[in-house]
Write a structure and sequence with these properties.
Layout (H helix, E strand, L loop, with lengths): L19 H14 L10 E5 L5 E5 L4 E4 L2 E3 L3 E3 L7 H4 L4 E2 L4 H6 L4 E5 L3 H11 L4 E5 L11 H8 L4 E4 L2 E9 L2 E9 L5 E4 L3 E4 L3 E3 L40 E3 L11 H38 L1
Parallel strand pairs: 4-15, 6-13, 7-8, 7-13, 8-9
Antiparallel strand pairs: 1-2, 2-3, 5-14, 10-11, 11-12
Helix pairs in contact: 4-5
Length: 300
Amino acid sequence: QAGASARIENYLGFPTGISGMALMGRAFSQAQKFGVEIAIPDEAVKLECGNDPCHIQLATGERVQAKAIVLATGARYRRLGVARLEEFEGASVHYWASPLEADLCADADVALVGGGNSAGQAAVFLASHARHVRVLVRGTGLSSTMSRYLIERIASCPNIQVIAETEVVELLGTDQGLQGVRWRNRRTGTEGQHAITHLFVFTGADPVAAWLTGSGIPIDEKGFIRTGADVRSTQRSLLPLETGVEGVFAVGDVRCGSVKRVGAAIGEGAAVVAQLHTFLARRDRTTPSAEASRSAARLG
């Protein structure tokens, strides 16, 4: 999600902002510099715990074993529940706003669905390229979902219009692309059709944790991974980012109670490193005694 953000202006060290793609590109290069082995593309489909070490089943059929695992799977973008969405995705319906999409929208009328910070950043960015940007919000305004500095930026852009209590109900177009969007006022029921050629969807995301079903990882009612004090039943004291399954940690947007910001996610990544050292040191101390107990039991 960070990589798809048009502009990140609240990350420490970049006072003039930086594109999400540029920030994540630097992070990727930095990880490689420190010797991280990165497998692309590779998909984890199952987590097998309860043994030592844990194993991760990959879509290729391979199994990866590890003494400790950090789950940082983030979240997937939510999609609009309207007909013909797939028909226009990629060409006219977008889930990010990079310079490529901005060039496609030059001097055009575009609509953007969403009221969070990512939506605000995208709206401001697109306003410098598009003729007019309509921001469609389900709620009564932006004050409860967006940072004040972004609300002020949006208010200062003459070609951005915020339309509250509104939802998209229909997409219109041909195989040549999107030609119009129909939306409805949720309070009055009034509908209108507008000549829109590009629609941006920033309606949040759902945690990528469904693949953990059956692993014993504690999940909350919204699908986020519980860690530390949020794990309701455990017989041992947990580190703040431990999941309750020994050797498995969770950080970032997939974690229950996390702050959905790039800086917070990176901070949790730094914090889990220290907790991994604590866990592994504790494991090394307890393993010999556990083995001695088993030996005593066999002798008895």
